[in-house]
Write a structure and sequence with these properties.
This protein is of the alpha+beta class. It has helices at about 15-30, 40-45, and strands at about 1-5, 10, 60-65, 75, 80-85, 90-95, 95-100. Strand 1 (about 1-5) and strand 2 form a beta hairpin. It is elongated.
């Protein structure tokens, strides 16, 4: 996740872009019917005893207004949060840009809004 605080940008945006570009290239190859080469699979790290688990990623949660599919007043959890600039009042998730309103008060965390 990239946090913009004033003129400073935390995180490593170039490294994240490179990872996403590699993923996109792999997905495009799959879409065209080309699977990973046997040599690439043989040289890849091995994972034993694996299972598929839900991993926590930063997201935004709150009541949305003006969502193109949900309308107004719905409590949502966004897709993965990539960039946030509280000072400039915006955030970019995997699927869209949000305009930030008031943050949730610390005393309200854990309670339904």
């Amino acid at each position: 996740m990239i946090v913009i605080d004033g003129d400073h940008m935390g995180g490593s945006l170039p490294r994240e872009i490179e990872k996403l570009e590699r993923l996109l290239a792999d997905l495009k190859r799959l879409l065209s019917g080309r699977f990973p080469a046997i040599a690439d699979i043989a040289n890849a790290p091995r994972i034993d005893g694996y299972s598929i688990v839900g991993a926590a990623s930063p997201c935004l949660a709150g009541v949305v207004t003006g969502h193109p599919h949900l309308g107004d007043g719905h409590l949502i959890v966004s897709s993965e949060l990539w960039v946030i600039s509280p000072e400039q009042e915006w955030a970019r998730t995997l699927s869209r840009t949000y305009r930030l309103g008031r943050p949730r008060a610390e005393k309200d965390i854990g309670r339904h809004p």
